[in-house]
Amino acid sequence: DVKVTQSSRYLVKRTGEKVFLECVQDMDHENMFWYRQDPGLGLRLIYFSYDVKMKEKGDIPEGYSVSREKKERFSLILESASTNQTSMYLCASSLGGLSETQYFGPGTRLLVL
Amino acid sequence: KQEVTQIPAALSVPEGENLVLNCSFTDSAIYNLQWFRQDPGKGLTSLLLIQSSQREQTSGRLNASLDKSSGRSTLYIAASQPGDSATYLCALSGGYQKVTFGTGTKLQVIP
Questions:
Q1: Minimum CA–CA partner of B4 in chain A
Q2: How many Cβ atoms from other residues are within 10 Å of residue B92's Cβ?
Q3: Shortest Cα distance, chain A CAs vs residue B49, angstroms
Q4: Contact check, Cβ <8 Å, A99/B51
């Protein structure tokens, strides 16, 4: 079974802090994704990566950056957390290509005070 | 820009009932459509994936259909059970790794 893990289930940070969210997948998938999920807005793509050291902006990249130094790990970075970044963050991976199923991690619920 | 709509936002049915969840989309140029299930506070679990060239997929009590010409997909759940209670989301893959999600239908199956 594909397993996608996220470093924290719950996280509380203060405004202005630098925040790191880590995601690891164990199935040698090419593609990895970061989404945020908010009530009434659904899932929105922040960034994705289709290879090591490669990244592409999604729909809402502002205020975020990402890092993919190893194939299995995809990090989301909030350079200076703000209250409007309070959300549920979901990581996903897929084998490759557009026809492949995405597998999701359990999510990280981030609260920025 | 692809827009994905799921109506109703919430649905409550008695146990044993057959039900249909709807997903509408505006751009038929898709690669695939996927149905997910999300339990409260959890990540998404893939249920069914329909390729653009397919009309339907089945898995156990679930059947998903795709009609690109009308911009619709349905998820049929047979003989619903309380364990089916969750939020169901559809997601469409378009060009360049772009995936657009609907906002989901929250299903409650009452024992």
A1: A42
A2: 27
A3: 7
A4: yes
Q: What is the CA radius of gyration of chain A?
A: 13
Predicted confidence (pLDDT) per residue in B47-93, tens digit:
999 989 999 999 999 999 999 999 999 999 999 999 999 999 999 98
Cβ-based neighbours of A46, under 8 Å, separated by 6 or more: A34, A35, A36, A58, A59, A60, A61, A64, A66, A76
- Of B36, B43, B91, which has the smallest distance from its Cβ to A105's Cβ? B43
Q: Which residues of A19-42 are buried (b: 16+ CB within 10 A; e: fewer)?
A: bebbbbbeeebbbbbbbbbeeeeb
Q: Which residue of A has its CA nearest to B97?
A: A98
Q: Classify burial at B106, counting beta carbons within 10 Å of its beta carbon; exposed 0-12, middle 13-18, buried 19 or more.
A: middle
Residue with the larger pLDDT of the pair A42 and A22: A22
Is the predicted pLDDT of residue A35 greater than 70, yes or no?
yes
CB atoms B41 and A107 under 8 Å: yes
The label of the residue with tokens 């981030």 reads A110
Read off the pLDDT of residues B16-35 as tens digits, 9 standing for 90 and up: 999 999 999 998 888 889 99
- Cα distance from A41 to chain B (closest Cα, Å)? 6
- Check if A106 contacts B (Cβ < 8 Å): yes
